[in-house]
Design a protein that fits this description.
Length: 75
């Protein structure tokens, strides 16, 4: 990991501090920049996600709950 010094406008800094939190700004900016600067192998990433049984179980629960919510909507 590397330390980076950047310059932002006062309003941007205040907004980051207020919305993201003082100890979370670096992670937020890192996560924001990552997809723009790192080439990831999507096939490998999808295989790894599919292999995570807990995550897949939670995703299935969520999707089934969403289907029942839509089915209960009035038209």
């Amino acid at each position: 990991m590397r330390k980076l010094t950047i310059t932002v406008e006062d309003e941007v800094y205040s907004g980051l501090h207020r919305q993201i939190g003082p100890r979370k700004i670096s992670k937020f900016l890192n996560d924001l920049a990552r997809p723009h600067v790192i080439e990831e192998d999507l096939d490998t990433a999808y295989r790894e996600m599919a292999a995570d049984e807990d995550r897949e179980s939670e995703a299935l629960e969520w999707s089934e709950a969403m289907v029942s919510d839509v089915a209960d909507e009035r038209r």
